[in-house]
Amino acid sequence: MNVVSAFPVTPTNQPLQVLAGSVAGGFPSPAADYYEAPISLDVLLNIRAPHVWIVQVEGDSMRDVGIYDGSRLVVDRAITACSGHVVMAYVDNQPLVKRLARSSGGWLLESANPDYPPIAPSEYGTIEVFGVVTWCLTPHAL
Amino acid sequence: MHSDIRPVFALCDANSFYCSCERIFRPELRDRPVVVLSNADGAIVARTNEAKALGVKMGEPYFKIRSFLEQHGVAVFSSNYTLYGELSHRMAMAVSSLTYATEQYSIDKNKLHTVDVQS
Q: Catalytic residue at A71?
């Protein structure tokens, strides 16, 4: 799965109301006990942090973990990449998104699609992990 | 116990900032000299250490040294202010998380306020 672009992120001012209660004529709202503070996606996804990026991907090699062509991924550079993480990595200077697996010669790069076999360390020269994928945003209707 | 608290400032300055920005998303540039050009590709406004070592001067007009740069395998970029502004902002955010007050005084320079406590 190839990385197409990284986006600069602008802040949103609009927190989302998870549960809206309304008060009628002074009567305490029965919903008040269940009030949850509005959530900010900026906070939930941590996308205001200087080490977090949003990248758009193309291809279907990671389809089976829910990453699709055109998905936006939240990539966190401050997490130490471990076996099992889905990461964005420069492999022979090309940005890819793959799952890391340990093998004796180095990182094995697994896809999430039976049409894509794993990439063994012997098949590439250099690898540099850019960051760990923490969230995926996929549009369903536009 | 008597202690002196004196203000101390730490100046944090990025190396070859525009060039370093270009290298973040292009790891293959780390092994090559890199320069970045001003508006309309007029002059050199940023050089990596390797480019400096080759004798490339700040502000040098691009047309004058174009073939020299090609001969020496120097990677040349038009300026990408969207990228540099974004990374400048992130760097300033990261640096400001380290202390109680900072001032950003250029695209790649931050002044951190701290104290020296002697007792």
A: no
Q: Which of A105, A58, A98 is nearest to A81 (CA)?
A: A98
Q: What is the pTM of this model?
A: 0.82
Distance CA B115, CA B111 (A): 13
- A8–B82 C-beta distance less than 8 A: yes
| Helices and strands in chain A: count of H runs, count of E runs | 1, 7
Nearest alpha-carbon partner for B113 in B105, B101, B104? B101
The verdict on whether A40 is a catalytic residue reads no
**pLDDT tens, position by position, B11-62:** 999 999 999 999 999 999 999 999 999 999 999 999 999 999 999 999 999 9
Give this complex's ipTM.
0.86
Q: Which of B53, B32, B34 is nearest to B45 (CA)?
A: B34
Mutate to test the interface with A, among B26, B90, B110 (most CBs of A within 10 A): B90
